[in-house]
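Hey, I was hoping to borrow your eyes for a little while. No rush at all, and the record is pasted right below:
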Amino acid sequence: MINVYLDDYRPCPKGFVLAKTAEECILLLEHEEVDLLSLDFELGWGQQNGLAVVQYIVDSGRYPRACYFHTSSVSGRMQMVHLLTRHAPQHVRIHNGPMPEEG
């Protein structure tokens, strides 16, 4: 089981596999069991955004155990959280914000 951090700019936290694009993140979700998933929304000009990853999760049913949103895009976070909340099974923990800082 792996933890995945989707971001094209920020450094990847320790203990996570970095996906720099929505496509990379979707491939990891497709081929690995994901424990924690932390999503950014904006992934570069002309690139698919984090919502494409959430749509893949909903369509495929390949949910992580927990999902966090470290994006600075308020509207992007709202869209991703809303879509996941509507469709995720009850056991999936959806956090409307970033992971807590390690102490």
The helical segments are 22-31, 50-60, 74-87. The chain is about 35% helix and 20% strand. The CA atoms of residues 79 and 91 lie 20 Å apart.
